[in-house]
Amino acid sequence: MAQLPDLTIGIEEEYLLVDRNSRDLATSPPEAFMRECEKRLPGRVANELMQCQVEVETSPCRTVAEARQELRFLRGTIAEIADQFGMAPIAASTHPKADWADQEVTHKARYEGLASDLGVVAGRLLICGMHVHAGIAKPDLRIDLMNQMTYFLPHLLALSTSSPFWQGRDTGLMSYRLSVFDSLPRSGLPDRFDSFMDYRNCVDHLVKTGVIENGTKIWWDIRPSENFPTLESRVTDICTRLEDCLTIAALYQCLLHMLIRLKSRNQHWRIYPRTLIAENRWRAQRYGITETLIDFGRGELVPAAELVDELIALLAEDAQALQCVDEVNRARDIVALGTSAQIQRRIFQQSSGQQSSGQQSSGQAGEQQALRDVVDWLIAETVAGV
Prior knowledge:
Creatine Kinase, Chain A, domain 2
């Protein structure tokens, strides 16, 4: 096989900060918390839109193994510092019972500007995600890969789901985060572009008219980074388990490698209409890996577990080349064990059932305790293996 690009990856994770006593969100963390984070993790940690959120990022990594070491350090350091202030980070795309109306926007010009521009839409963004950057030097290749990768975004989303609850209610969705995020303008699946110039013309038109300042305010599920020569996947929930996160990153890296490999052989993944991909995106958002996705080649619904097996087989050569065979194969473990969303729902159902059958608690009180039990699991699992 011809030598293909290195495809370095960088991972960004967003965490919610919870009060260890109440298990509620830490609405206004002490300023000393962020000062200590910035001191210990210079250039690798930042505030997010809400004061109860914190974001970390790895450096560019050649392999998923390198990313594992960095994320262990980042999660562990944030947890250690948070504990000093009576808090803990949770890697979940929504808090099981928090009310967005109780949260405070971070006092930075960018975030206060968003709150002013977007109104209540910004206020509802009490959500966290995981973004994976893949280094791709050639701008036109970035666009070509974005057009093709759109097909696989629902598969990655299905494996990552961690947001079944919203304001104390089971939403019935595995990723309610996307329902919140989709209220933003310039979000969702990207348009198809013929070239990087075609993409730039679109962005520049929005900038010229004064709608946006730059491309960072285009919030598609996948996009060319405005600041780095990377293609950024943004569709997934944040994975509570560290190893799940690394599997998602490995799959993304391998999928891009596979598409570049096909291109080197004058082959191309078929690009389907946006409407069809959106249907699979909704199914992944609603059911995760518990039901079916559309296999457009077959023209039928196929169990998500079967599609995961097919994906692993498709990427075997690429996983070998990128030294992430174990991480890719671990997608089967996610199917077997369940995503964070599945486990959160399972804990809630078991705990609320136990509470309602006891003498000390029932009804609403039992559900509140069950939600606390979900938060306890999120706290523990976020740093498991760290």
